[in-house]
Amino acid sequence: MKRVEVLERTLTRIQPLDRTLADRVQSRLDQLTKPQGSLGRLEELALRYALITGQERPRLQHKVLFVFCADHGVSGEGVSAYPKEVTAQMVYNFLRGGAAISVLARHLHITVKVVDVGVDHDFDPQLPGLIQRKVAYGTANFAYGPAMTRAAAVQAIEIGIALTEEAIAAGADLLGVGEMGIGNSTTAAALLSALSGLPAEELTGAGTGIDATTRRKKIAVIQRALACHRPDPADPIDVLAKVGGYELAAIAGVCLAGASRNVPVVVDGFIATAAAWVACALHPEVKERLIFSHLSAESGHGRVLAALQVKPLLDFAMRLGEGTGAALGMHLVEMAVRLLNEMATFAEAGVAQKHGEGSARDRGGDIGPCT
Length: 371
Fold this sequence. Notes:
Blueprint: H1 5-13, H2 22-31, H3 41-53, E1 63-70, H4 85-96, H5 100-108, E2 110-118, E3 130-132, H6 150-169, E4 174-180, H7 184-196, H8 200-203, H9 212-229, H10 236-243, H11 246-260, E5 265-267, H12 270-282, E6 290-292, H13 301-308, H14 324-342, H15 346-349
Helix pairs in contact: 1-11, 2-3, 3-14, 5-14, 6-10, 6-11, 7-9, 7-10, 7-12, 11-12, 12-13
């Protein structure tokens, strides 16, 4: 199948959530052996997972988290505290199990798939554990020209789609997304400014730990690029091609494919949220099928989440990336689903229910999905 056709096919498969399921799931939550609503957002999360999957008693057995890796030409402008070689070095660290995401995934029983979609490094073709889908050796420096061609942007999105469909076919029922790429907080800020209309200075943070002078340089680079390339916010792929990154495009592909297959996708922090915005802009129903894991300490993330009108699960002042926040969010999703499926109801346990206790809807409670 030709490129773009894969993307279009995926978009046409995305349908609105079936909310007729909500009453049945909420009824079970209300009958579990606890005061109604006492598990708070865990109950909302269980309901959301059920609605996304379309299953009254959904299963959650296989969690897969993608870490997409790519380099960025804009790193040549001195916008990061680290040299671009760190991207490839961190890929090796992921594969050796020494990174933060590696540790979390081991203990939370999450399968991590490390994917090279654009690292400026030649990895051994037989390197164990690395999925090699390189589109190019990093993007071009968008301070001087578009980051990539439109065709390359679509290619990277479709890599994310293909890998997601493979994972789902192999049994994945919860997905997470993370990234690694020196310079990609600059890319994310540019992408989000173009798509949201928010000023670059409000979205540009410390990234890898830059000082105030470097941050001002970073803002200026983004502002010049947006003024020069004039990405069209009504055309998300145009924005992605002009100021995006290959790993962000692949993450957008995971979000689209997960939505098309009724498999929830847990989104990491600021950079992954930029990629998720691309997916949401490509299809309005995608947002309802995403779970935003945490509020990043990166200064612009709160503004972006507010603009998307979504609420993250956690606020641990994290800003590492790699999917670390997504891993923690995936664990919370699993706990919520286990409570829905494994707790006894009052009738099953032979426990008397409180007199006059109605449903969440009767009490005026919000049983809509927590985002």
